[in-house]
Amino acid sequence: MGSAALFCLTLVSLASLPLGLGWLTTPPLISLTRRYADQRRRWAHDWTGLRIPDDQRPLPDRQPGLSGHVQHCYQLLRDPATWRELGWLGVDLTAGCITALLPGVLIVLGIEGFVLPLLVWKGLVHDYEYVFLSVSDPVQVALMPVLGAAVLAASLFNTKLLRVHFRLAAAFLTPSKAELAARVTRLTETRHDAVDVSAAELRRIERDLHDGAQARLVAMGMDLGTIEALIERDPAKAKELVSRARTSSAQALTELRDLVRGIHPPVLAERGLDDAVRALALRMPLPVEVTGRLPGRLEAPVESAAYFSVSELLTNAVKHADAERVWVDLEYAEGRLRISVGDDGRGGVVLSADGTSGAAHGGAHSGLRGLERRLGTFDGILAVSSPVGGPTLVTLEIPCALCSPKTSSS
Amino acid sequence: MRVVLAEDLFLLRDGLIRMLEAFDFEIAAAVGNGPDLARALEEERPDVAVVDVRLPPTLTDEGLQCALAARRARPGLPVLVLSQHVEQLYARELLADGTGGVGYLLKDRVFDAEQFIDAVRRVAAGGTAMDPEVIAQLLSRRSGDRPLARLTPRETEVLELMAEGRSNTAIASKLVITERAVAKHTSNIFGKLQLPPSDDDNRRVLAVLAYLDRG
């Protein structure tokens, strides 16, 4: 039985974690368990229409080498879904096994009730017990087909039994209420974050408009008023003011342009995330290589969050990492947007659970924390691998839907 | 010289028409959206097209896409693209076919009517007109490169103007130096950047941009 073997092997593997060997054997076993449980989820849906929810956490890209392997294993072990599936294996190999095997046993048993009297009559069987009827008593032999029929009738309820089996699986594989409560708390938190972030953003925009473009336009209006008064009396002075007014208007435009870029970059609006990231890469003072293409446009809020995240990561790489080469990889698969930003700099970025630790990268940390909050609003995650001495690899993942296929020709 | 103009904002379109007419251009068509632009480019066969990047109905880069498509259909069709913002990405796409006759300018450049008209004429004649902002981005990005670092400040100025698509005469008058001095600077620049010398204005710009683009 698959459950029993998997359960025992996983237990042994987990037990050998302290010895070191477990770190190597556990991840494949866990992923096997996952596939096994997923198979059961599919069957439950196909056979009885029961949907067993699945909340396995998405895993960040696996790093090469032994440390990557250990990290991968650690992440698998931290996922409550892993432990739920393991618990389910334990139940499945006992109660689940009975509920799964019983339908088959019932049918075989029912048929046996009809076949056995024939065998007895032919003199092939002498000493045998059929459930509680003995072949030695002719009356009991005569009752065998009746019992067989009853058992077969009972097997008509097999679909119910199968449902019981899958309900059992569902009970163990479904995230518990406590987790749902935790999820609600997390959603409340991220919503607060989102509101805070956008309120701060609005304040920044208001301030920039007030101190920048608006002030310049006022100055321009004043200059124009003075020009009106001077134009005949002192044409030379008026001309000088005209050129100043023109400078003011050019500056106001530049400021507005920068402001727009900070709110919603034009290339992002016009072309979507991948070209926007390419345009961003071209503006970086370092060579930035962008690979990968997205199959279409993403929802605007996701595009925007992803764009500003990449922007922040690139800025970090340029400012803090002392990198010579930076690369970005974009990928969209199975309903998730994944972006990796790597550099060959000196590394040392740490993003601890509370986001407070710091090391060589200095200012990068508060930025990463903010970035995590930004992504959290979309249930996105951020994984950082940055050993001191480098290289740094930051991967972010956002679950999202494509809203339209690519239309642009380029 | 016949111009097809595409700009969706009425005020700007009106202003551009008046400005172009004041400098003796003939407006073959002035349109406000992508499909009309595509049709006008095909039917009117203008000497030059002045096109806003962002046009209805999509209000994305419809104008740029139209211009690129028209140039694929009719290689070398002079197109001057105007935009509220300039991006190297778009500049590269315009320059990619290497046939010249392209320009990419910030909309603000129309403030200086003479310079703007000069850019239109240059593009119509098969030259290029790249926005100083694109060039500044390119130069700042490559500033770590040793060959560029070897240029003197004056040579850098000359390189910038050359990359915008200006002729030696224009560079000389802009920097208030003699044309011979400009020629000397350019040959120094070509030497330092290891670019093959060329008389052709347009190829000169493409060579400079290709160099700046490298890496």
From TrEMBL, chain B:
Q: Does the keyword Glycosyltransferase apply?
A: no
Keywords, comma-separated and alphabetical: DNA-binding, Phosphoprotein, Transcription, Transcription regulation
Superkingdom of source: Bacteria
Is DNA-binding among this UniProt entry's keywords? yes
Coiled-coil positions are none
Q: Which PROSITE patterns match?
A: HTH_LUXR_2, RESPONSE_REGULATORY
Q: Which residues carry this modification: 4-aspartylphosphate?
A: 52
**Matches recorded under InterPro entries:** CheY-like_superfamily, NreC/VraR/RcsB-like_REC, Sig_transdc_resp-reg_C-effctor, Sig_transdc_resp-reg_receiver, Tscrpt_reg_LuxR_C, WalR-like
Q: Residue limits of the Response regulatory domain?
A: 2-122
Where does the signal sequence lie?
none
Where does the HTH luxR-type domain lie? 144-214
The protein's matches in PANTHER family, at most eight in alphabetical order, are given as:
TRANSCRIPTIONAL REGULATORY PROTEIN NARL-RELATED, TWO-COMPONENT RESPONSE REGULATOR
Name-wise, this protein is Transcriptional regulatory protein DegU
Q: What is the native source organism of this protein?
A: Streptomyces rimosus subsp. rimosus
Q: Which gene encodes it?
A: degU18
